[in-house]
Amino acid sequence: MIQVIRMSEVPIGSRTLRGGEELVIKIATPPLSKRLVDFMLKTPELSQTERESRMRLFGGLRGQSSDCFFIGELEDVIIGSVWYCTPANCNEIAYMGEVFTVKEQRGKGTATILLDFAIDFFKKNGGKAFYVTNLCPHAPHDIFRKLGFQAYGYGRQAFGGVIRLVVNGKVENFDRDYYHRDPDTSIRSANWGDLPHFIALLNYPHDWIVRAYNFGLIGPSVFDELGRSFMNFMKTLKADNQCLVLEDCKKRVVGTAYSSSLPGRSQSHVKAVDFLVHPNYYEEAPKLVKTLIEELRNHKIEKIQAYAATPDNSKIDILRLCGFEKEATMHHQLLVGSDKTDLEIFSYWLHDLS
Asked: 10-126 has which fold?
């Protein structure tokens, strides 16, 4: 097992570029040096969310997220980078951030070399699968294809949604093995390190039409981090909201339940809730949802609302097991492809108003 040295910019190898120059590859883990922070904040992905990115780069997520940054240098000048993060307590899956090369150095193979080193390092440290939200039209699609990345989940409709690279084991067996039923589950609060878990779980090809109503995950919609889905979600937790995750004994997240606020002061006594659980863990879903209900009971909340499409029978069954009652049906509310389906609204009263 390779140990990550807790200091910035440790050389781990070199490769010759197409132009003949020798590219030196270094790895760094937060807190990063000032020069590396300055470079990373110029990359398109991290520059768009500077406040949250600084938190990651300066080590503010340590203990929740394990972040590895790989940089390529020519004569001590940084010309490219790629980074990935894994949950601090589960190194099996990773979210890969943007691979970036400065404009004047592109076309020499820098991005491929950096990705090779990152993938090799991840694999040697027990990693199993990389997830990339590849929605950006300028993403290096050809490079990802050559390295073996494949469209995943709802990204299968086009190579431009979510893509995945399985580095240990067979691609066709990964989901079966990773989400294999484990009776030893536990519930905890979500944290910033759960980004790879959410990318994997929320994009898993699920039977439910409404996977996460307040995320807009209806039908084939993709939960992507280039659209800041997870980052924006974590921000909502500051507004008196809760998010719980269900994990197995290997700390793999197999379900999540969360609350969100409805707009306007007039609805401040109501919370919307949603949940998504891998099908192998449907039996655990009521425990997860009921735990969330108890968390909300401790706040000044009177009513909880939840949403399901009419064909989402197993989701509706879970809601009823938790004490929710159907309050309304919105006919032909959801357009999925060329088909329309009804949206059902369920309610749970936390306090007796009689």
From this structure: Aminopeptidase (3.40.630)
